[in-house]
Amino acid sequence: MAANLQAEKRIRQRYRREQRFKALCIGAITLAILFIFVFFADIIQRGYTAFYQAQIQVEVTYDERSLEIPAAAVSEEVRPLVSRGFLRQVPGHVQSDPDLKGRTVTRWVTADTGVNQYLKDAHTGLSPQEKATVDKLHEAGRIEFAFNTNFFTRGDSKMPEMAGIKSAVVGTILTLAVTMAVAFPLGLMSAVYLEEFATDNRFTRFIEVNINNLAAVPSILYGLLGLAIFINFLGVPRSSALAGGLTLALMTLPIIIISTRAALRAVPDSIREGAFGVGASRLQMVTHHVLPLSLPGILTGSIIGMAQAMGETAPLLLVGMMAFIPSAPDGVTEPATVLPAQIFTWASMPQRAFDELTAAGILVLLAVLLTLNATAVLLRKRFERRW
Amino acid sequence: MSTGQIILSFLAGLLPLALLAYGLGRRRALTVAGGQDRALHSRPGFYGWYAVVLMAAPAVALALLAALLELLGLIDAPETLILAAALALAAGGLWTAERTIQPGLRARNIVEGAVRWLLITAASVSILTTLGILLSILLEAMRFFQMVNIWEFLTGTTWSPDTAFLGGAGRGGEGQAEAEFGSVPLFAGTFMITAIAMAVAVPIGLLSAIFLSEYAPLRVRGAVKPALEVLAGIPTVVYGFFAAITVAPLVVDVATALGLEASYQNALTPGIVMGIMIIPFISSLSDDVISAIPMRMREGSFALGATPSETIKHILLPAALPGIVSAFILGVSRALGETMIVVMAAGLRPNLTANPLESMTTVTVRIVDALTGDQEFSSPETLSAFALGLVLFLITLVLNTVALIIVRRFQQQYE
Amino acid sequence: MQMPQPNDNPGDPEGVVARSSMGAAELREGSDTVEGEDRPQSTPAPGVTRAPEVGGGSEAAEPTHPTKVDVRGLSLWYGDTQALFDVSLRIPEKDVTALIGPSGCGKSTFLRCINRMNDLISAVTIRGQLLLDEADVYGSEVDVVQLRSRVGMVFQQPNPFPKSIYENVAYAPRIHGLAKKGAEMDELVETSLRKAGLWKEVSDRLSMPGTALSGGQQQRLCIARAIAVNPDVILMDEPASALDPVATATIEELIDELRSNYTIIIVTHNMQQAARVARYTAFFHLGEVIEFDDTDTIFTNPSQKRTEDYITGRFG
């Protein structure tokens, strides 16, 4: 009986251990999931306020004096409450519309960041007097929140209320265009060579080891490469989308090669044998049969590679893509910045008002990245073929 | 003319020529075959491509050669001359193609051969990239080691390049202390943050993987796995912002509540956040290897009366160990090279300490700092970035190679 | 991994009864049926009612041993598909019982019910009773871990753990706390390997990985692994189907040696093997037990037409 009791005890003990272990596993996954929620909640809570902005209704006087001293265009009372960015535009208004000259127009204009922050209950540099004015105007309906169009239509600015992501978005598009224009064809050709043409010899294996290693090289080293080779040796303009795009292309290349090879490998050999069997050449076999069949997989891999390049910052800092870019670049050789670099720049700005811009920029970036990844997943699901 | 314009005009000349060559070659083939394409060795299109290859290959080769020689400073010819020569060569190639096309010409074999060479060239870019990384870093690092003793660099415990900056700015020699480049504090900071990151990522990542592969019902697995992968898709600059603005104050508050003193740029913050970043990495790799273990191993263990956790601990984890170890190594390699999180949340000041609540800096932070400042490129501080990069490259290269070898062994085990 | 409750399946009870009457043969000893015993939480399944005896002309075999595994009206569903229909069997103690039948007839499924390996599949529903030593294997108080230490199993594919030969055998005693480390464990490992007829071949290389042995040796290692915890019952799921004829003969000899100490239930698709090793044979077809009797009777004088057709090779 004693032995029996002991066995009972042992069983209970083992079950307790089982419970503990399972609880530990569940705890771990809960922690990871919890983090995702905390993270998104934190960023959204910090960033959503940047999508609306205080507007102030003022009377703008377009007279001789205000053309010389733009600040004089509005009354002294509201002057500190109006964005200096708007005041600077006053002479420009007259230039583009000469009829305005000499008239006084009532219009809604972007308020100063201090007003913005005060109304959003954040830290503000306004004096008590100014605060009182803001309260008064707010009650009178002359200060109101409106959608922050500046954020999407303007480039970087030292004034938080005037700063936007437009130049960074244009820079990102240019940079990624360079990246994909280089990395996609090169990656596709490398993968086709390794999967469909190469024999298993030492050269091929060397390339394979190389690609696997390149996929795991820290991204910042690509920055050193870009700086030394593209900028210092080849003379590509510093800070340009070309320099950044080429650097990212080399970084993205191994990702595209690896995923393309996987997609090619998923096509069964019976297809290849069938093509050879009817007398197709190797090139015809690849272009007529294997490539069309593996295209969804190749595109999926390329989209994922592009998403990764889009979120990359470190190598771009080294090739100078964190410059202050107030207006969108016109070409790939002009100084540009990208969205992650813009986020980095804003994150290091001393003014608190840039925090919400940073978080808002992050939200835009994450939205685009999640969309790209979701597209890739959908593409794979939609066109996935089981052999 | 700028480089860009030259490339553009070269392409502008070449592309219409290629179209022309394809059309001419194809028509020529049909003409010599008397309109009967069965008489041709290859399909007419291949003769078109044959003409394109013959036209473009010498021109491109000449252009590349000239560009390379120019860059190396061996020749100094006006760009327009080279451009004209290349286009002339292209026209010559086209003419040759026109003349050589005959029904018996094996155009397909020639085109396929050219394509193969094009593909080999593309595949070699990866080798060139590795070579490029190695050479670019190595050459600049050599320049650095001419100024700073390599032994001092590897074993010195003081990193104070600031005076070197003064020297670089032309204000050296005013009797200040010598600049010192002892990298030990940087690597100590890097390893400290990496260790914290792995201490966060390994238990959470591994246990999550075990839960997903062994305990979770299919539906839960289907929902949780993509959610974890979202973590992997978040850009590092975003993690950096989150670390600096949310986690750092939290860590300081908790430390203060515990009666400890913490810097806002403590090593714990980037360590924790980097750990979170690496969780999906560890969990998806571990999940893959655990799931790859054949079902019959589990059945064998359950049939002997083992509980799930006993099966996991005694059978599955030992069997999956090589894969888990390589996931760990790859995670370490990633943590060592991670840049944005530490740039934004760790300190700039080299600090040799074992206290994770103090501010310390890392290799990658110093690389970014050295190369984003205004110093001239040949100053020792700027070049020190390449020396640090060289060490980082070698360390991660060794780690990745080891991980690849281990993982290959594991895959062979179940083949 | 939730335990499927016997009484919550979505099957149609009427259908079950109708099918069961078609001919689940069973070995009867006493005539008393213990309906719904020790099953407080569940109503007795309809299938439990005794099926009419279909023993035909021959008298039911008189077992020399008491019943070890008593199955009463067991039905099983994978999701909505029913795989076992009202199976009733009485498997005697300390002898070899073979389960034969064409592929997909449910014999392996039935075997996996006995040590509840089907618990590992989440969509399984089970109804009916399966008694081991008169205690319901699916009773709420039954502990799967304990059950499996009493009912060992050998699989179709030899599945040694990727560990040393020694560790493969020592694994189960260790998790069940049956032997301490050191000499006691060494002895247990040696005894088990001897019983499995493997000791002579591996005694000098116990630290070699179990996966490095040949297929037949691996399978005997799995048998040694199973008997190391001294189970009452050993289930064998086509243990020789992945082996060559020589290794198969060795396994069959081993089964013959083990029969006096263990209740062995073996699933086989090989009728000659059943004839060679088993004292009793049950013929499964389409998830039902068509006939259960002495192996000799089944092979020489089956009472059911379907059994005869299968034995003589007319289908299957």
Topology overview:
The complex is a heterotrimer of chains A (387), B (415) and C (316).
Chain A lengths: L1 H46 L4 E10 L2 H5 L15 H13 L7 E7 L2 H7 L8 H12 L3 E5 L2 H4 L12 H32 L4 H15 L2 H15 L7 H25 L3 H9 L4 H29 L3 H5 L20 H9 L5 H31 L4
Antiparallel strand pairs in A: 1-2, 1-3
Helix pairs in contact in A: 1-15, 7-10, 7-12, 7-14, 8-10, 9-10, 10-12, 11-12, 12-15, 14-15
Chain B lengths: L2 H30 L11 H28 L7 H22 L6 H41 L2 H6 L3 E2 L1 H7 L11 E2 L2 H32 L2 H16 L2 H22 L10 H25 L2 H9 L4 H30 L2 H6 L17 H10 L7 H34 L2
Antiparallel strand pairs in B: 1-2
Helix pairs in contact in B: 1-2, 1-3, 2-3, 2-4, 4-15, 7-10, 7-12, 8-10, 9-10, 10-12, 11-12, 12-15, 14-15
Chain C lengths: L12 H8 L46 E12 L2 E12 L3 E5 L6 H8 L9 E9 L2 E2 L7 H7 E4 L10 H11 L7 H13 L3 H4 L12 H13 L5 E5 L7 H14 L4 E5 L3 H7 L2 E6 L2 E7 H6 L4 H7 L5
Parallel strand pairs in C: 3-8, 3-9, 6-7, 7-8
Antiparallel strand pairs in C: 1-2, 1-4, 4-5, 9-10
What this model shows, in words?
The complex is a heterotrimer of chains A (387), B (415) and C (316). With 387 residues, chain A is mainly alpha-helical. Helices cover 66% and strands 6% of the residues of chain A. Chain A has helices spanning 2-47, 64-68, 84-96, 113-119, 128-139, 150-153, 166-197, 202-216, 219-233, 241-265, 269-277, 282-310, 314-318, 339-347, 353-383; strands at 52-61, 104-110, 143-147. Chain A has a 3-stranded antiparallel β-sheet. Chain B has helices spanning 3-32, 44-71, 79-100, 107-147, 150-155, 162-168, 184-215, 218-233, 236-257, 268-292, 295-303, 308-337, 340-345, 363-372, 380-413; strands spanning 159-160, 180-181. Helices cover 77% and strands 1% of the residues of chain B. Chain C has 316 residues and is α/β, with parallel strands linked by helices. Chain C contains 11 helices and 10 strands. In chain C, strand 1 and strand 2 (81-92) form a beta hairpin. The chains are: A mainly alpha (387), B mainly alpha (415), C alpha/beta (316). Chains in contact: A-B, A-C, B-C. At the A-B interface, helix 1, helix 7, helix 8, helix 9 and helix 10 of A face helix 4, helix 7, helix 8, helix 9 and helix 10 of B.
